[in-house]
Design goal:
The chain is mostly beta strands. It folds into three domains: 174 residues, Immunoglobulin-like (Sandwich); 139 residues, Immunoglobulin-like, CATH 2.60.40.2630; 236 residues, paralog of FGE (formylglycine-generating enzyme), CATH 3.90.1580.10. 8% of the residues lie in helices and 29% in strands. Strands 3-6-5-4-7-9-10 form a seven-stranded mixed barrel.
Length: 604
Amino acid sequence: MKRNMILIRILGGWLIGAILLIGCSSEDDGQGISGDNLVRFNSQLANISSVSRSSDILSPIVLTKENWMLGDTIGVYMKYSDVQSFSEANVKNHGYLSTKNNVSTSIFVPASKEDEIYFSDGGVDFMSYYPYKSTIGEKDIYPIDISGQGDNPSKVDLLYATSDGKLSEKRDVSLSFKHQLSKLVLNLKPDLAIQELRDVWPSLIVRASGFYTKADFSLIDKVISNRHEIEDFSGAKTSDGMKVELIMIPQTVGRNMYLKFGLLGKDNELQWNIPEGAVFEAGKQYEYTVSIKMTWVDVFEGEIRLWEGDSKIDDIVWGKSSDTQYGLTKIAGGEYYIGSPEGEGEENEHPRHKVDVGGGWISSYEITNKQYAIFLNEKEVGSSGKNGKGEQLIDIGVSDIKMKYINDKWIVDNPTDDPFKWDNYPVVNVSWYEARAFAQWLGGDLPTEAEWETACRAKSDALFWFGNKSETFNYFLNCKPTSKLIPVNKGVSGVIPVNFLEKNAFKLYNTHGNVYEWCLDAVGRDAMGSAAPYDSKIKVSEKIYHPIRGGSWKVDLEKCRSASRDSYLPEQRADDIGFRVVFPVSNVPILDFKYLEEFLAVSP
């Protein structure tokens, strides 16, 4: 046998350890048995590649913990096999060091004399973890903290292993470590044909917001508990910037949990809201492809894989984005429920039923006076309110329209001696025909009732997207009982700016109250003058009405619920009816998203 000395460099100093290495000569029996009862570990790290598909394969960058490095330290607990289970009373925390560098399997030896473990004739069992901590809390609780992962998530990548049990042979003990947290992988697809994006792409920072960053892990029971401390943390990216990875504490996604994409010199971060109810499970990898433009991101369906292997478990059905893009919000395609259950709401909201929404984008705000004035000028509408084709696009006979025609141009009718402006207030007194003409001019259409209610609810089954608590109403909606309480109205009921109140989980503003919004569908009308129930059929002889949704500042609270429905004739107008625009996925080839984002953006 050969005896060698290993120098292990740790933390800038030199730890000199006399470590007995076994070299098998022709006389060796090949068992790898040391000359005493000292325990060593042959520790394997089951891995999958963490390298971007577009990275340089000759110099790959490993982001999470996929290989052992020289000097890596694992913590080891030992108990005698005749003891029924690991417990705080019968275990001690030992540190063991890796003797190999950048390998998936390494030999681990004691870090110090005090850390040495010896075999017992009665047999022993082992439990091990990484990263090592010299001091473990009461009840053998290992503190998880992922907040500081930054460019090196491997330092927070919690690993765990146990031996097969009842080991008494004097040989290297095999340990196979597995990941105990979750991994989120983003394969980035930036549109580098955009010069502005190409210039700032190296500055990209991806941060997770709203997630738990600390928790407790029981080394005895292998259970994660006491999730706490919500704060932003950044992910690691490959040198080419085409892949980002984040370690996540296993948890269920709640409201206001999202990823932020920040670029140098850009005040507004792009954002992806991970759908509420999604679950990050221990030992699993969630991988997405993310398309990034200058002012928006689109997240495609992903895959769930076991972190320790390359086998796909399933497609991620909750991986469709619901991101806000400077005035545009992505609505994921799928099946959603609309309407009210029996015993709730009005008769015309029944039956509650499932609808198929094709997916697309919807304007985050109600269309504004400023935007509608631009439309009138683009359509060459004259002082009569008609364009050259004789199409009526604004009724000049309505007394309180907030636009006027001056010097052959439509402008917002703002006071000349007051800083107050009507620019960001919703355009009203537009007919269904006029609203639809505007939507089609932009390359979209009016939303269907299914699209509108899906966007309004933002996956909430409550009466309002924010719940049912009356003490919060004036923060979220502008209706008859709350209008005077909204600061911008200064004690007088009325319409408010489109971006004034809180946004819902899909980042839509003013879906409850302020102004009614036109919908595309054709509906009948019941005896009470409202939209007929969903299962009613329109008779050939009756007039065609179109739904208006969301309620307004002039109506009572119940008319502003997510499921509430009313209807008007398409030629009718009112000072509390406006609209917003939807852009179906099928329209994508004809859309200029950069223009739409800029046009639909609303400044504070």
